[in-house]
């Protein structure tokens, strides 16, 4: 049985503060976890969590992935930006041009995100988190489509995107050039395998698709793996 995307994980020295920030920006609820982590939860109980995991490594480079938040009107875009700034976010410059229309911000731990203007047809109707936008090759987009068994909803000019058959947030990869990785990524995907599934067989399936072992095992028998672009992700058993 295929792994399910259960969470987007941020490693941070400020898990509680980041959870408050993102819960406030998205109007989601937060819940404390068993390992000092805190998660914010989609209001309808479906989809994946955003989880903040304790870690001490300082942020030194731009993240390889960021959230694109959607807007249904210019007023909503302004409200989202104002709410993020009030909660501790800040404006940053990553080379965006004024004519692009999106606002680039960072959360209180420096993680970049964009607030998009209204009228983005590709992300219309998805909800506040339109996309997890990643640096990545076409190969890694194909890998994640097979790993999650999510269809490709974009595959053009080496840019790819996938989306759950149930809808919801898209994951996109911008194609080359991809900046070299510097240290461990602060954002990673967390996959869950149903309790009644063959966990070793699922790990073997992911390895056959192009993942590699990152070394070590998670507590409880989970696994650390790398996707074809060298991005870390974790797999654990539900229950």
Automatic annotation (TrEMBL):
Domain Glyoxalase-like, by residue range, is 8-116, 132-235
The record's section on CDD domains has: VOC
The family database entries (SUPFAM superfamilies) matched by this protein are listed as:
Glyoxalase/Bleomycin resistance protein/Dihydroxybiphenyl dioxygenase
Q: Which Pfam families does UniProt cross-reference here?
A: Glyoxalase_6 (PF18029)
Under Gene3D superfamilies, the record lists: 2,3-Dihydroxybiphenyl 1,2-Dioxygenase, domain 1
InterPro entries xref list: Glyas_Bleomycin-R_OHBP_Dase, Glyoxalase_6
Q: Which domain of life is it from?
A: Bacteria
Q: What is this protein called?
A: VOC family protein
* Source organism phylogeny: Bacteria, Bacillati, Actinomycetota, Actinomycetes, Kitasatosporales
């Amino acid at each position: 049985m295929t792994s399910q995307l259960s969470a987007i994980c941020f490693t941070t020295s400020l898990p509680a503060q980041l959870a408050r920030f993102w819960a406030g920006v998205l109007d989601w609820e937060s819940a404390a976890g068993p390992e000092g982590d805190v998660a914010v939860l989609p209001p309808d109980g479906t989809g994946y969590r955003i989880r903040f995991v304790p870690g001490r490594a300082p942020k030194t480079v731009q993240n390889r992935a960021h959230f694109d938040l959607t807007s249904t009107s210019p007023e909503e875009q302004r409200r989202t930006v104002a709410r993020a700034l009030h909660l501790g976010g800040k404006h940053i410059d990553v080379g965006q041009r004024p004519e692009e229309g999106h606002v680039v911000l960072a959360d209180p731990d420096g993680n970049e995100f964009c607030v998009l203007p209204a009228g983005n047809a590709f992300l219309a109707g998805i909800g506040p988190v339109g996309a997890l936008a990643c640096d990545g090759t076409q190969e890694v987009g194909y890998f994640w489509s097979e790993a999650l068994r999510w269809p490709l909803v974009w595959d053009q000019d080496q840019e790819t995107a996938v989306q759950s058959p149930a809808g919801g947030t898209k994951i996109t990869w911008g194609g080359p050039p991809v900046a070299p990785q510097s240290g461990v990524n602060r954002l990673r995907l967390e996959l869950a395998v149903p309790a009644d599934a063959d966990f070793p067989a699922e790990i073997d399936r992911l390895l056959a698709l192009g993942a590699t072992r990152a070394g070590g095992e998670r507590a409880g028998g989970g696994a650390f793996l790398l996707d074809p672009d060298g991005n870390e992700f974790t797999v654990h058993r539900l229950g």
